[in-house]
Specification:
By secondary structure, the chain is an alpha+beta fold. It has 10 helices and 10 strands. A hairpin with a 5-residue loop joins strand 1 and strand 2.
Length: 292
């Protein structure tokens, strides 16, 4: 089984491209004991999602999940594709509209497969307190003057929440552009994650983490056409926000506090000064929206 390429995954996994019988596959593996069970859950989530056939939205098929107490290896289809920067720098507005329609269709499919459920406010309150404990124990954040006031303001937001009624059932868990492979007008979703609430609303939150807040651009190390990217992201964001605000009341009610929670959950692990500055600015702005 010759290895064609070896790169490092963002999560600490090894990502290899392998060839078998003239076909290419991705082999995602880890020996990190803290990550093994989670990688298995993510692979099973992707395997289940790949069974749904949606127009334009695809999920690479999982062929095998091997795991024991010290190692996990997941074999899946290799997809010939471009990343989001390559795609958006060449895509015309017709192609961007195809993507918008496909994303809305995918999210509406998730909603249709979920059940409108009342989520106890304690679920969010407990998650917030857990995240705060990690933020306060993060040595990269201890000397940042804005943190205590930011936590106090956030606590006011979550203390004010009542039980929330939203669709619960399925979600990708990390629906950002860095986890979408672009192949013409087909879009392949990768790197599924578990979430503290398995709700399509959390996928809308993650998508708008990119379209409204340019997260994947921050993570992208190459050059790009910043102006074009902001125009495209803004167009997608306006369409996503308008659609769900018009059709689903729970989106208008709970998007803002859950986006705040999303950024706080990222902050708890942040160590790069550039990322920390981005997150503090984003959280401060999101707090203004929650209080507005």
């Amino acid at each position: 089984m010759p290895i064609e390429l070896e790169v490092k995954g963002h999560s600490g996994c090894d990502i290899d491209v392998i060839r078998e019988d003239s076909r290419l596959y991705i082999l995602k593996s880890s020996r990190d004991p803290k990550y093994l069970a989670r990688l298995v859950r993510q692979a099973e989530k992707q395997r289940a999602a790949a069974s749904d056939e949606l127009q334009h939205i695809r999920v690479p098929r999982i062929h095998n999940i091997e795991h024991d107490d010290s190692h996990v290896a997941v074999k899946m289809d290799y997809v010939y594709s471009r990343n989001f920067v390559e795609y958006f720098e060449q895509a015309g507005f017709e192609q961007v509209n195809y993507l918008i329609d496909a994303l809305i269709m995918y999210l509406e499919h998730e909603i249709s497969q979920s059940v409108l459920t009342t989520v106890d406010r304690a679920v969010v309150a407990d998650k917030f307190e857990d995240v705060v404990s990690h933020i306060l124990n993060n040595p990269h954040l201890k000397d940042i003057a804005e943190i205590p006031a930011m936590i106090d303001r956030s606590r006011e937001v979550f203390d004010a929440l009542s039980d929330m009624t939203m669709p619960v059932g399925i979600c990708h868990g990390d629906l950002t552009f860095s986890n979408i492979l672009f192949n013409g007008n087909n879009y392949f979703l990768i790197d599924f994650l578990d979430s503290f609430i398995e709700s399509p609303l959390l996928d809308i939150v993650k998508l708008r983490q990119d379209t409204a807040w340019m997260w994947s651009r921050l993570m992208y190390s190459g050059d790009c056409d910043e102006i074009r990217l902001r125009i495209v992201f803004g167009k997608i964001d306006a369409a996503i926000d308008a659609h769900f605000r018009e059709h689903h009341g729970w989106y208008a009610d709970y998007y803002a506090p859950l986006q705040l929670m999303n950024f706080l959950r990222i902050l708890q692990y942040a160590h790069d000064p550039r990322v920390i500055t981005y997150l503090i600015n984003s959280i401060t702005s999101q707090l203004d929206q929650c209080n507005g």
